[in-house]
Amino acid sequence: MTEQEYNKCVDLYADGVYRFILKNMQIPEDAQDVVQSAFEKMWRHRDEVKTETAKSYLFTVAYHQMIDHFRKNQRMVSVEEFDESSKIGNVGHAGFKNELEKTLQRLTPLQKSLILLKDYEGYSYDEIGKITALNASQVKVYLHRARLQLKEYIGKIENLI
Questions:
Q1: pLDDT tens-place string over residues 114-134
Q2: What whole-number distance in Å separates Cα of residue 76 and Cα of residue 70?
């Protein structure tokens, strides 16, 4: 990868990687650090990284950096038990996004990452598997379980709308 190709990758992918990490971490400064270290690693390994796979490489490195950050700072929180009393009520259109964000925060970092990679970033199961070091079958199962937990917490979509 040349310097020009690297700079093009920064222009093309920096915002997407940052959004993904920020949605998981919720702390802008930490997300910036993770994204910066991912780009730094790509620069150090630029001779090995192909331009065609740069986006996947960045998401993979950023994801693993984020997990390392969680482990280092012991910020991993166990999933709360979802019960009938914790379901959200009617919040209207304005509160839909906020309630969805709160709901996503109740998932484990892996579950949240899988949902964001599949539903928000549009990656395939195989691509997500490469990013998270899981096989495609595990991605499908974990994603299904995460969606079930979201559904259980939210109840019916009519509650949000």
A1: 888 888 888 888 888 888 888
A2: 6
Is residue 78 a part of any domain in this protein? no
Q: Is 135 part of any domain?
A: yes
> Structural domain of residue 145, as residue ranges?
84-156
Please give the tally of structural domains in the chain: 2
Separation CA 14–CA 16 (nearest Å): 6
The DSSP line for 54-122 is HHHHHHHHHHHHHHHHHHHHT---PPPPP-GGG-----HHHHHHHHHHHHHHTS-HHHHHHHIIIIIS-
Distance between CA atoms of residues 132 and 110, nearest Å: 8
Does residue 43 sit in the same domain as residue 88?
Answer: no
* CA proximity to 54, closest of 66, 41, 64, 67: 41
Q: What is the pLDDT of residues 56-112, one digit of tens each?
A: 899 999 988 888 888 777 644 444 444 444 444 444 555 667 777 777 888 888 888
Interatomic CA distance for residues 37 and 65, integer angstroms: 8
User: Among all chains, which residue has been given the structure tokens 């299904």?
Assistant: 144
Q: What is the CATH classification number for the domain harbouring 147?
A: 1.10.10.10
